[in-house]
Specification:
two-stranded antiparallel ribbon; Rossmann fold; alpha/beta
Length: about 250
């Protein structure tokens, strides 16, 4: 089995984002960047499948500026075999990303594509589903457990009423949820080895994909600050306050 894992370079989850003074977007200057946490889970799951003998090769792919090579190196240090970087200065919208990944998937012919269910910078939660639709592949989203059962992949996913288990025929798309696994820390020897692993650089034009934006961001603002609460002495006062605010009859 060959596994393809798309990964995205995002603001580190420990960093509080800052809005640009002109409100045109998020300020990325001198901000720590790292691999999207959900994608890190996807890489970990792919590497575990390889270590279990289920997969023979793990390929990580990223779409973004040249610095996204650092994100690919992280995936290679975790255990992936090689990387593909599609260089673009402007981050495409989810449909553009899905179209590029569809072309890469057609070239690489993987049996399984594992990716994070969403990126923590835009929270779109669209690429996995769009990719499955473009390829006509089966999909299992929000996976909290993944295991091979004969010629099928069993995907356990969390739904409102509990757990749902799907049996997928390969090739398939799987998107990862937080409870799927605990990603490993790359060891120093593996980080050094990752520097020698190959990364193939391409552009969107190489795939004949138009990634021109379809949406325009008019303004980006921070959410309003939460107002201070008020402590009331008893339930009757609370009810009276709620009626005064119009949230209770």
């Amino acid at each position: 089995m060959k596994i393809l894992v798309p990964v995205k370079r995002v603001i580190d989850y420990n960093v509080k984002p800052r809005i640009k003074s002109d409100q045109s977007g998020v300020d990325l200057a001198n901000v720590k960047m790292s691999m999207n946490p959900f994608d890190e889970i996807a890489v970990e799951e792919a590497v575990r499948l390889k270590e279990a003998g289920t997969a023979e090769e793990v390929v990580v792919v990223s779409i973004g500026e040249q610095k996204a090579q650092e994100t690919l190196r992280t995936g290679l240090a975790m255990g992936a075999d090689r990387g593909i970087l599609v260089v673009t200065e402007d981050m495409p919208e989810p449909l553009g990303i899905a179209k590029i990944l569809a072309k890469i998937t057609e070239e690489e012919s993987p049996d399984l594509v594992i990716l994070g269910k969403q990126a923590i910078d835009d929270d779109s939660n669209q690429v996995g589903q769009m990719l499955a639709a473009l390829l006509g592949w089966s999909q299992g989203t929000f996976a909290s457990k993944l295991e091979q059962d004969g010629d099928k992949l069993k995907v356990t996913r969390e739904i409102d009423g509990g757990l749902e288990t799907l049996a997928l025929s390969t090739p398939a798309i799987v998107t990862t949820d937080l409870r799927l696994n605990e990603p490993r820390y790359a060891s120093l020897p593996n980080i050094m080895k990752a520097k020698k692993k190959p990364i193939d650089e391409k552009t969107a034009a190489d795939f004949g994909v138009d990634i021109s934006p379809r949406l325009e961001t008019l303004k980006v603002t921070e959410p309003p600050k939460r107002e201070a609460g008020e402590i009331v002495p008893d339930v009757d006062t609370l009810v009276a306050k709620l009626k005064e605010m119009g949230v209770a009859a």
